[in-house]
Amino acid sequence: MTNFYTMITVDIFVYIFLGFYLENVVPREFGTPRPFYFLFTKHYWCGETTNNGMPYQSVEIKDVSLGEDKSAKSIRENYQDESNYEDQIKSGDCFKFNNLVKEYEDGKVAVNKLTFNLYKNEIFALLGHNGAGKSTLISMLAGLFPPTDGDAIYQNQNVFANMEEFRKKVGICPQHDVLFEQLTVREHLELFCIFKGVNEEVFEEEVRKIINQMDINDIVDNEAGTLSGGQKRKLSIAIALVGGSEVVFLDEPSSGMDITSRRQLWDILKRCIDDRIIILTTHYMEEAAVLGNRVGIISEGELQCLGTPLFLIDRFGEYFTLSFRITPDTKVDKIIEFVASKYEGVKHLMFTEEITFQIDRKKETNLKNFFLELDSITASLGVVNYSVSMPSLEDVFLTVANREHDKFSKYN
Tell me: the pLDDT tens digits for 352-361? Predict the structure, then answer.
């Protein structure tokens, strides 16, 4: 009988150890496995510490400033200069991506050598068509998928080697709401504060602060299952921000919201950027233009350009638009003839009450003289009025995405 109980006891500990070990090293659909030798590393048992006492694994920090990569000169020209962020780069207070790659077993490369920096107190808008690699990038940084190659460095730590610690600093709002229908809004926020290890002394204050920031005081005691679609999105965003999240991923946060709620959300997010890095993906170009301090466009897994909206518009905006409001009496042929005489190869689109010209910015003549002459003949042409608009961020996105799609199709 003694031998029986001894064997049972030994088996219990052996199976507990095997379960723990295999849980950490066996690859699964989601999650980043540890190396098979992790139990024999100094970092696992002792760890090293940063100035704030948090354990981490030391890594050699490479300067991933785009100006250092001579092999990417042609792409580098599409990136705005980042010299005004030197303090954050030197202090390691930014989020650095160095040659991130994600290749699936079927050979598809979803993320291809992404190298760029993200900075605090800003919202970075990541744009791209479906399948461009946006969600894959977020999934890697959240620890759902291991990267095939490359590093992600935050506060002098390799986040892939220190995912457990990094997750305490991260907030995520996924594309689709993942909520507990029977828990109230307040209970959700309290639960995620516990997950992130918020100190008990500031626990209630943290929950109260995020409730006020998100303007959800009227629904704090409502169960998640009773909330509208827009309210659920607000709750998902609040969960991402609660607990002092330093790096926040918002994957299409305003999807399903009406226009009024979306604009209210924009104002809220602008107030929440202090001491945070917010990465936003969206299909709304206006949202990216309003919120994005910097904007990046990704296509076929590669980041094609990066900079402020104005920088991208100036670099990639190919056309400015000249629109005439017309009536049945308007001399449309004369308008087309006049504009074509000033701009060779101009494109025009006809609508019921409007004719619009797309004019290549590179072929600009003296605009002052052009509009003075246009003003002098509008009455004789029967034009009600006309307007001119510069390229928008949507025009930039279509130009860059189509250009890279055509290039990709050419080589495949």
Answer: 788 888 888 7
